[in-house]
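Backbone-to-sequence.
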């Protein structure tokens, strides 16, 4: 079955390339984090890549990333598509609040793919490295997609200790799950730090470092995009009406709402890979060192995509 990888890259700043973390060179040959995610997705069996960007950065994005990846994907028989997140892409009858300057969050980002996605798909952040295992597990789960079960969703669950930064506190969605491994809720927890003993704490309270957390890596169905459409209308009647300049329509929050209503189920797919991200400027050298080790250990080749072209 065809499966798509949707990469949320609309958050890249308008000063494209000027210290934008999604474009930081982290690989030994100047690769960015997105390159490794695309490699791992194709290796796992995904055969369509959708970039969500903004129109105002399209030329620069294609120059820095898109054209290069498109050439590689053409050689590998992988389809490339673009979706555009726009501030003024609003439900019918809703006008843009005066003074609003930023798009409406990750839920609106994925909604921009309406009409582009007819297959089950995974969603990731552009500036997060997730490791190979999660892509394999999501791809395998999506292969079981049936139109008769449009609400059967999944999520990669990362071990908390594998997602922490040495350079400061982070916010993580700590998963609550049933005995069968289905998500029952997410506790958004801010201020999580490593402890000297290798554990984790937030606000002086210990958190199990083996807990599974959400890193915004989802396995979704094509029908889910229609649910997002309905949810966006509800968002403007609620949260956006209360805070029109700052409210965001966020994917995890909306999925949790659907979960509580019983509209969807979310299978948590545990992964033991280490997550990398450039949360703090000080994280970048650690990420570069981590990728250098992955290449030295043979996890990736010196020519990143060469192994897929054999």
């Amino acid at each position: 079955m065809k499966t798509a990888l949707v990469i949320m890259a609309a958050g890249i700043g308008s000063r494209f390339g000027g210290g934008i973390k999604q474009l930081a060179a982290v690989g030994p040959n100047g690769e960015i984090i997105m390159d490794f995610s695309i490699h791992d997705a194709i290796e796992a069996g995904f055969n369509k890549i959708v970039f969500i960007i903004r129109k105002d950065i399209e030329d620069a994005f294609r120059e820095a990333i898109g054209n290069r990846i498109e050439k590689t994907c053409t050689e590998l028989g992988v389809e490339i598509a673009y979706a555009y997140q726009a501030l003024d892409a609003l439900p019918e009858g809703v006008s843009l609040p005066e003074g609003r300057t930023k798009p409406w969050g990750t839920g609106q980002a994925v909604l921009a793919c309406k009409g582009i996605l007819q297959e089950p798909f995974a969603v990731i952040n552009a500036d997060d490295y997730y490791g190979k295992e999660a892509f394999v597990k999501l791809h395998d789960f999506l292969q079981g997609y049936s139109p008769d079960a449009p609400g059967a969703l999944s999520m990669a669950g990362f071990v908390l200790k594998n997602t922490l930064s040495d350079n400061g506190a982070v916010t993580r969605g700590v998963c609550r799950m049933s005995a069968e491994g289905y998500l029952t809720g997410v506790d958004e927890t801010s201020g999580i730090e490593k402890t000297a003993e290798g554990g984790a704490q937030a606000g002086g309270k210990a958190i199990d470092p083996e807990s599974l957390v959400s890193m915004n890596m989802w396995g979704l169905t094509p029908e889910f995009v229609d649910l997002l459409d309905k949810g966006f209308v509800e968002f403007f009647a609620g949260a956006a009406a209360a805070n029109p300049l700052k409210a965001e329509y966020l994917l995890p929050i909306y999925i949790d709402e659907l979960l509580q209503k019983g509209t969807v189920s979310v299978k948590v797919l545990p992964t033991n890979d280490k997550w990398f991200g450039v949360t703090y400027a000080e994280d970048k050298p650690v990420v570069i060192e981590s990728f250098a080790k992955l290449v030295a250990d043979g996890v990736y080749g010196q020519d990143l995509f060469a192994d897929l072209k054999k």
